[in-house]
Amino acid sequence: MGRLALAVLLVFSLAACGGKSSMSAERVTYQADYPAYDTLAALHAKASLVVSVRLAERTEVRSLEHRVYTVLTGTVERTFKGPGAADVEIKQPGGEHRGTTYTEAGGIPLQPGRRYLLFLETYPDSPASLLNPGQAQYLLDDAGRLEPVDASGFSFTLAELEALGPGS
Description:
Blueprint: H1 2-16, E1 26-30, H2 40-46, E2 49-64, E3 67-81, E4 87-93, E5 95-97, E6 100-104, E7 115-123, E8 126-130, E9 137-140, E10 146-148, H3 158-163
Parallel strand pairs: 1-6, 4-8
Antiparallel strand pairs: 2-3, 2-7, 3-4, 5-6, 7-8, 7-9, 9-10
């Protein structure tokens, strides 16, 4: 009987103190306002880096700039604009961090292991970011065909992208 009373007292104490179980899950949703682009040329002009990449299978969740991000590393297959590099790190808002799930309203997470064409903004001390989640990422198949990940994306070919040139 003494153990039961102690267990009940512990439960009431935690409830009275507002204690939370370490097993409880919390959710935080970020709201972001991204610019929309009217044309592929406008999207290309704004990007500091345009690359085709194969994303690694592994992701890393980081707390950067007071927000939680999932960071993916991509092996660069081809650079269409910007400085050439063998790899690029890309961050997207969201991820699991310290028992809390962070998501972005309207976000379209990159899928590890897939090939993409990405329109990115680069930073000196932080992973690159997509210009917006719907227009700045395109699935890329082995034949070089592009598929928008969202209805707001553009329909174009790699040849049309090349015709825009390497600069803005």
